[in-house]
């Protein structure tokens, strides 16, 4: 069971300079970081489900953070990609500007880990100082180190 975001993060799946400022293009840009992930069985089908979920309801969490996600049979395990935008991405469906985007794919048969991760993410980005630290990370590795440090502060050393 994965309860830490930091365990899912990979520097190759983190973009600290998302170029797109429109929601769908930005989601595509970040989701593409998962295109060759070994646990993504069929990227195009996963991506289509990600967009279908996005059309159902906004994935904005507030505080300039969005969590586009899909529960799908097209991933074997939970996968995560992160996009950061200094300019901001306009999410017209919630009329918010997003600067941090976490694209998540979870297997349909694993709703528990999905809910635990979403809860952990919400706790992680709740404080402005935490979001500022994530926005200030200079490299993908520094971003992961920041997430790890924030998780230690929030959750302690529990697994």
Could you characterize what this model shows?
This protein is α/β, with parallel strands linked by helices. The protein has a single domain (5-155), classed as 3-Layer(aba) Sandwich (Mannitol-specific EII, Chain A), CATH 3.40.930. Helices cover 40% and strands 23% of the residues. It has 5 helices and 6 strands; from the N terminus they run E-H-H-E-E-E-E-E-H-H-H. A hairpin with a 4-residue loop joins strand 5 (79-91) and strand 6 (96-107). Helix 4 packs antiparallel against helix 5 (140-155). The longest helix is centred in the C-terminal third of the chain and has 16 residues, at 140-155. It is globular. It starts with 13 loop residues before the first strand and ends with a helix.
Which terms summarize this structure?
159 residues; alpha/beta; Mannitol-specific EII, Chain A; six-stranded mixed β-sheet; 5 helices; 23% strand
Please report the total strand number as a whole number: 6
- DSSP summary: helix tally: 5
CATH class: Alpha Beta
CATH topology: Mannitol-specific EII, Chain A
Structural class: alpha/beta
Bin the helical content.
25-40%
Task: Calculate Rg over CA atoms.
Answer: 14 Å
Question: How would you state the average pLDDT, rounded?
Answer: 92
Number of domain modules: 1
Shape: globular
Summary, kept brief:
With 159 residues, the protein is an alpha/beta fold. The chain contains 5 helices and 6 strands. The protein has a single domain, classed as Mannitol-specific EII, Chain A (3-Layer(aba) Sandwich).
